[in-house]
Inverse folding.
């Protein structure tokens, strides 16, 4: 009896996972560089944070373009360009002497890394559309961001301590180039009945019309608003968690480990909620995740000992992972597969443009008041409040079509 060949979609999952690991390297680990740059150049926290803001703006710009190109053509050339742009830019950060140089290079790195969420998440959803274990496949790919944080936060901290922040930037750039380039070579277009290229070839501008309809839909606007709040908080905390913890008397090594551990717990959240998506539904999962992230930020204000920091890390990491995978799942259910890459790109670009100012605002308020109490309190409450519009407005017929083959049901 012949063995059935392994479905190539699982190789796609592995390649997309490698790409999102690099996104974790870029987005979760900048905070580890924060105090090294601050100490080297004497920049204020607001000014240091502004360099990350430039990277997020670059990310937002490229997210739309990358998603659209992957819908129309293929993920492979998009990811190859990503590797060629971001890898060298990150490595060249090792040569900076002024804040303007770092801002420009991180902007270019953002342009390169903008493909690393919309392209992998849309690619894997196409390969597993209406197939068993689609939630697990998406959860694995989204888990790469958390794995990247788990690996790179402590590694970068060690490299900074042993060799200096300049060599750490070189390492990050080389790894990004190699890993994303490898992922691009493995990925190929999905062979499914919902081939986007075939549809676009028949209908010409139909994708443009579809995108215009989506942009005007109340559900797109509600989900985009929710994601904007979530990403704003995510970016602010990513950059300022390590400085916050060290201000509270916790060692830089433990603080960097906590940032990486948050990424590890986010992997748990992505995988568990990917598995539970068939039972809970993406909508309920997203509402629970918002409440969890908001509660964790309020808990963070109580941190003055290591064990409280770890309690925060567990709650925040699991909730953040659940939020990330639930947003991607919701988008597939609400808006379909045909323009999924561009839809994700547009929504995440809006969210990242809002999130770009999270680190700067948190740094500015710290410079003004001497602490993070105001920004973390407001963000915690706002994140929890977002659960209401999720449950109230994000009910769609697409949600009734469970990809694991469950009987259709109204949520």
């Amino acid at each position: 009896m012949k063995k059935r060949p392994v479905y190539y979609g699982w190789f796609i999952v592995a390649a997309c996972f490698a790409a999102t690991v690099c996104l974790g390297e870029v987005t979760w680990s900048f905070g580890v560089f924060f105090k090294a740059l601050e100490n080297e150049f004497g920049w204020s926290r607001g000014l240091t944070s502004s360099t990350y803001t430039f990277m997020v703006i670059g990310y937002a710009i490229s997210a739309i373009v990358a998603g659209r190109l992957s819908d129309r053509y293929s993920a492979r050339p998009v990811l190859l360009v990503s590797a060629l742009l971001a890898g060298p830019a990150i490595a060249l950060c090792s040569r900076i002497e002024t804040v303007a140089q770092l801002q420009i290079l991180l902007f270019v790195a953002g342009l390169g890394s903008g493909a690393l969420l919309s392209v992998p998440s849309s690619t894997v959803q196409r390969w597993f559309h209406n197939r068993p274990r689609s939630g697990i496949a998406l959860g694995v790919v989204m888990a790469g961001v958390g794995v990247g944080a788990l690996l790179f936060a402590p590694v970068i901290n060690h490299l900074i301590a042993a060799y200096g922040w300049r060599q750490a930037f070189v390492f990050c750039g080389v790894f990004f180039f190699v890993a994303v380039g490898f992922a691009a070579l493995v990925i190929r277009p999905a062979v499914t009945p919902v081939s986007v290229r075939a549809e676009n070839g028949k209908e010409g501008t139909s994708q443009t019309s579809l995108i215009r309809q989506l942009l005007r839909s109340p559900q797109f606007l509600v989900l985009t608003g929710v994601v904007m709040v979530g990403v704003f908080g995510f970016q602010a905390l990513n950059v300022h968690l390590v400085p916050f913890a060290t201000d509270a008397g916790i060692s830089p090594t433990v603080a960097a480990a906590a940032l990486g551990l948050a990424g590890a717990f986010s992997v748990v959240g992505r995988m568990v909620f990917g598995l539970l998506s068939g039972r809970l539904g993406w909508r309920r999962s997203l509402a629970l995740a918002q409440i969890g992230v908001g509660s964790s930020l309020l808990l963070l204000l109580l941190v003055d000992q290591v064990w409280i920091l770890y309690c925060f890390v567990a709650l925040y990491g699991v909730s953040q992972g659940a939020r990330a995978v639930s947003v991607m799942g919701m988008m597939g259910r609400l808006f379909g597969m045909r323009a999924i890459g561009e839809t994700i790109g547009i929504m995440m670009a809006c969210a990242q443009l809002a999130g770009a100012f999270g680190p700067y605002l948190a740094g500015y308020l710290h410079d003004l008041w001497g602490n993070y109490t105001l920004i973390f309190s407001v963000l915690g409450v706002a994140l929890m409040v977002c659960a209401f519009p999720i449950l109230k407005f994000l009910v769609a017929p697409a949600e009734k079509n469970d990809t694991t083959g469950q009987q259709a049901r109204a949520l």
